[in-house]
Amino acid sequence: MVSAWHDRGVLPEVIAHRGASADRAEHTMGAYELALEQGADGLECDVRLTKDGHLVCVHDRRINRTSNGVGLVSDYTLDQLSELDFAGWHQNGAGAPPGVLTLEALLDLTTARPNTTLFVETKHPVRQAGLVEAKLVALLERFGLARPESTSDSKVVLMSFSQRAVRRCKQLAPAVPTVLLFAPRAPGRKDGELPGYADIAGPGIRLLRTDPDYVARAAQRGNPTYCWTVDEPADIALCQRLGVRYLATNRPARAREVLRAE
């Protein structure tokens, strides 16, 4: 999977950001199943820990935006989150099963599909600090995913905006590839270099719009690029032209259409 891959014009792999989250409520099984139907090569999720130590797929610190509950994810047990509606807020969420999506359930889905890669982002800062990565790698161990023969054989990629979190992931699972995500103005990232514990550069699409040569500079240093979050046709085409390796999008069907047309 991970190499100094860089080929302008070759199709990037389409990674469904929180599933097909433009069409279904994010981080729901329906969003991920639809993403696979739409031809996504991989799935992306954010994970947080519940009060009783379970990894659940929720982006925000609070559940207010994406459920009918209020408060911090970490203040709820898994049983309590399972009673809430995490889909009804979305225009296409009516009738979806209640409850939060667990990372374990998403791993069940992806491991049943041998050609699908799961990109897992740990969110920080959180009150549990490094426990998130420890629980994550322990769960990967249960699924036989924590010790691939090489990074290119891994069915999982671990990511974070936190350098400490990415370092922990590499220490706990050295052969699992890692993405260091960063904002457009992140200091020390313009030259395409990455710290030794990161395998893949993770810029947002805004950085590539203003600095399109970044992808080539990263590739010269052996670092492929994972770009988030790419929904507009012009941005999708830009990523293809630049040689972006992984394209994270809320609209995998649209991304496929644009890439086929280029």
UniProtKB/TrEMBL annotation:
Residues 12-259 form the GP-PDE domain. PROSITE patterns: GP_PDE. GO terms for biological process: lipid metabolic process. It comes from the Bacteria. It holds the Pfam family GDPD. One of its GO terms (molecular function) is phosphoric diester hydrolase activity. This is Glycerophosphoryl diester phosphodiesterase.
